[in-house]
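Anyone have C-alpha cells for Protein BZR1 homolog? Sequence:
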Amino acid sequence: MTVSLRRPTERERENNCERERRRRMVTARIFAGLRAHGNYCLPKHADQNEVLKALCEEAGWHVEEDGTVYRKTSIEGPSNTNCNNLYPDCYAETRKETEEDELYVSKIELAGYEVMYEKI
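Reply: yep, here.
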C-alpha cells in the first residue's frame, strides 16, 4: 500500500473548484431544459438518480426505491407518463390494462446471457 503525502497546490484547488462550479452549472441547465421542454416533474434540486427514474418511467419501466427496475404491466396515458409514482404532487392519467392489452414475455439467449423482453 502506498501513501501519497502530496497536497494539491492553491492553483490546483482553484481549478478543481472552477471545474465543479461549471459541472453544476451544466447540470442545472440540463434539468431546467427537461422541466421546461420535456414536461418532467423534477424537484428544484434534482439529482441524477431522479432524472434517471423519470426517464425510466417515461420509457415504460418502473423503478423501486432500492433501485430495482422492471417493466410496467399497465399502459400509461400520453401525458406526463414520467411523473407517475415519482412525485405525488404530479398528476397523470393512466389507462388500466384491458383484455386487448396483452403482455408477451420472451427469452433470448445472447452471448451466454439470458435476456427477457416484453412486447405490449
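Residues 76-82, 84-120 have pLDDT under 50 and may be disordered.
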